[in-house]
UniProtKB/TrEMBL annotation:
It is found in: Cell membrane. The keyword Signal applies. Gene3D superfamilies: Phosphorylase Kinase, domain 1, Ribonuclease Inhibitor, Transferase(Phosphotransferase) domain 1. One of its GO terms (cellular component) is plasma membrane. The chain crosses the membrane at residues 258-280. InterPro entries: At_inactive_RLKs, Kinase-like_dom_sf, Leu-rich_rpt, Leu-rich_rpt_typical-subtyp, LRR_dom_sf, LRR_N_plant-typ, Prot_kinase_dom, Protein_kinase_ATP_BS. SMART domains: LRR_TYP (SM00369). ATP binds at residue 377. The gene is ga05021. This is Protein kinase domain-containing protein. GO terms for molecular function: ATP binding; protein kinase activity. Residues 1-24 form the signal peptide.
Length: 627
């Protein structure tokens, strides 16, 4: 109650403060404008904007001027903004230079007070559903104007001519009509007017742009397109191909490129083929659906060329391109950003390749590209829903987002600095790696066990990791172990490449191919053995300390005489830890019991490792926190 009153008082206070200084704009008025915006535009993902926090340092998507006095950039791509942008909200940010609201679902029109903010130089509104005309009062400071993939109608305003600094004008995939104004813009480098309903001759000032800047406008003519009726044909200049992104992601499969960049003749051709296949399927599967849709006439007509554009425009295509973010995630990028990010291969696993992606704004994420997913879209989404529901735990790397299309399945995770346990244990010693000491190993074992126990308690106690191995235990800067890659095994084809590869797999899983919580415990046991022996259960190039059936090997060594032969030689250098190593070995051996019922539950494993750790800190009085 008291809280409410306080808030009411505060908002009144702010309101009154605001009125007198509405003209002398400052950070406070920027804040109010943004709060008004977030209050009136529904959004899928939470914006952590509150009155009480510092706008410049802790509001997601906001960048201030250097002196911290005004808001300079608002970047909210793909946060699920929905509906109209009300006037008198963003339009009041009169020091704004960059506004990015792309890949949302904004509708109605672009308020002219936003487009005309005098300081605005970059406006990114592509991939929304904005309609109405393009306002004629555009800021004359604009250098980058991207309104593509919306539903704008009417003509390209003549006033664009006066935006002399403009370097990019991207208006493709709207419903613009009328002639193209003769734009003498000396700095214009990127122009795309494709897929509109523009007509008439292409003005001489724009004839230097390639044909792909004008495609999909049935009534446009002249260089670089077909000559206009009634003019003598002249040789059209060779059109330069659109600039290639240098990014690593160029290696992505064709499907995703088509979806994103729809570029080049080959892609277009493929697209037509795909669309024709789709149309054919649609027609044969649900004959009613096509004709029921308003776009149905072209489809029903079956005229390939014409139906192509009409059929694919609209939501399916746009939605297909979207990354699905889980709730509570404050990332601020979309698929385009991700594809543009520079990427570095972190590892190649049985389920695909993992990349470290550094986005343009410096955000680092881990992207896993899955291969051989057997689950269909629906099953995939259901499983992701489950995985996404796994909440926050300091020993678990949460899945932040996923992308599913026929050709490409991507998972996005937080980046964890120090890499995997596998690399830390078996990394190249020649390269100066210091062997991991016992205390660190215990700490990591405990963290991983806690993460696993947490996972097993999720989903009503039914959640399964399915792929525990040392490369799926990541280590943070604070030497905190984090479990990753959970819940994916269920989507994959059972391993068929090395059917007899044992590694971390429980004996029953080799037959049933179905992981269970008990098989997770087995895998965890193998992981403990790996940490104790320093031997890897999976082969990898240049690794000699590989033992395929680690549990069996340990048993055979231990049976002969209970020796320290099994332990990692790097550990034996440390004094007085053999007792603890033996205790840990017992935990590990309990986990790798052949009969699933004889294995402990993860919770018990945690308890037993905690005991080892406690004895550890008792005897050695390390003041260190208990993880
Ligand atoms: C809001 O999210 C951003 C980006 O994740 C983060 O840096 C900031 O600390 C958050 N602010 C608050 C108040 O939680
Ligand atoms: C462009 O600017 C000039 C001078 O500022 C003005 O006279 C002219 O009307 C403007 N043109 C358009 C189309 O707004
Ligand atoms: C496209 O423009 C032409 C005239 O330029 C007009 O006849 C036609 O109706 C327009 N089509 C659409 C879909 O707006
Ligand atoms: C313009 O956009 C269309 C449709 O997205 C695309 O096919 C074409 O390659 C683009 N042209 C340029 C020059 O980027
Ligand atoms: C853009 O329009 C073209 C032609 O109408 C269509 O093939 C393409 O799928 C559209 N792109 C998007 C992303 O909507
Ligand atoms: C876009 O808005 C129009 C109305 O302005 C609506 O009919 C259409 O369904 C919307 N499209 C999407 C993809 O939301």
């Amino acid at each position: 109650m008291w809280h409410l009153k306080l808030i009411a008082f505060l908002s009144f206070f702010l309101l009154f403060m605001h009125i007198p200084c509405a003209r002398g704009a400052d950070l406070r008025s920027d804040k109010l404008a943004l709060l008004a915006f977030s209050a009136s535009v529904p959004h899928g993902r939470k914006l952590n904007w509150t009155r009480t926090t510092q706008i410049c340092t802790s509001w997601v998507g906001i960048t201030c001027t250097r002196d911290g006095k005004r808001v300079r950039e608002v970047r909210l791509p793909a946060v699920g903004l929905f509906g109209p942008v009300p006037p008198d909200t963003l339009g009041k940010l009169d020091a704004l230079e960059v506004l990015s609201l792309r890949s949302n679902r904004l509708t109605v029109s672009l308020p002219s007070d936003v487009a005309s903010i005098p300081s605005l130089h970059s406006l990114y509104l592509q991939h929304n559903n904005l309609s109405g005309i393009i306002p004629s009062s555009l800021s004359s400071s604009l250098t980058f104007l991207d309104l593509s993939y919306n539903s704008f109608i009417g003509e390209i305003p003549l006033e664009v001519q006066n935006i002399t600094e403009l370097t990019a004008l991207l208006l493709q995939n709207n419903s613009l009509s009328g002639p193209i104004p003769d734009l003498h813009l000396p700095k214009l480098k990127h122009l795309n007017l494709s897929n509109n309903n523009l007509s008439g001759p292409i003005p001489p000032s724009l004839q230097k742009f390639p044909a792909s800047s004008f495609l999909g406008n049935a009534f446009l003519c002249g260089i670089p397109l077909e000559p206009c009726p009634g003019t003598s044909p002249s040789p059209s200049p060779v059109s330069p191909s659109p600039p290639n992104t240098r990014s690593f992601w160029n290696k992505l499969s064709l499907g995703i490129k088509i979806a994103i960049f729809v570029g080049g003749g080959v892609a277009l051709l493929l697209l037509i083929i795909i669309l024709l296949v789709c149309i054919f399927r649609r027609k044969s599967v649900e004959p009613g659906a096509a004709s029921a849709s308003s776009k149905g006439k072209a489809v029903a007509g079956g005229r390939g060329e014409k139906s192509k554009g009409e059929y694919s425009s609209g939501i399916q295509e746009a939605e297909r391109n979207k990354l699905f973010f889980f709730e509570g995630c404050s990332y601020n990028f979309d698929l385009e950003d991700l594809l543009r990010a520079s990427a570095e291969v972190l590892g190649k696993g049985s389920y695909g390749t993992t990349y470290k992606a550094v986005l343009e704004d410096g955000t680092i994420v881990v992207v896993k590209r899955l291969k051989e997913v057997v689950a269909g879209k629906k099953d995939f989404e259901q499983q992701m829903e489950l995985v996404g529901k796994v909440g926050q735990h300091q020993n678990v790397v949460p899945l932040r987002a996923y992308y599913y299309s026929k050709d490409e399945k991507l998972l996005v995770y937080d980046y964890v600095q120090l890499g995997s346990l596998s690399a830390a244990l078996h990394g190249n010693k020649a390269a100066g790696r210091t062997p991991m000491d016992w205390e660190t190993r215990v700490k990591i074992a405990l963290g991983a066990a806690r993460g696993m126990a947490y996972l097993h308690a999720e989903g009503g106690g039914k959640f399964i990791h399915g792929n525990i191995k040392s490369s799926n235990i990541l280590i943070s800067q604070e030497i905190n172990a984090c479990v990753t890659d959970f819940g994916i095994a269920q989507l994959m084809a059972p391993p068929h490449i090395y059917p007899r590869l044992i590694g971390y797999r429980a004996p029953e899983v080799l037959e049933t191919k179905k992981p269970t919580q008990k098989s997770d415990v087995y895998s965890f046991g193998v992981l403990l053995l790996e940490m104790l022996t320093g031997k890897a259960p999976l082969r990898s190039p240049g690794r000699e300390d590989f033992i395929e059936h680690l549990p069996r090997w340990v048993q055979s060594v231990v049976r002969e005489e209970w020796t320290s032969e099994v332990f990692d030689v790097d550990l034996l250098k440390h004094p007085n830890i053999e007792d603890e190593m033996v205790q840990m070995l017992q935990v590990a051996m309990a986990c790798v019991a052949v009969l699933p019922d004889q294995r402990p539950r993860m919770e018990e494993v945690v308890g037993r490792i905690e005991e080892i750790r406690n004895s550890y800190s008792d005897t050695r009085t390390s003041p260190e926190d208990k993880i």
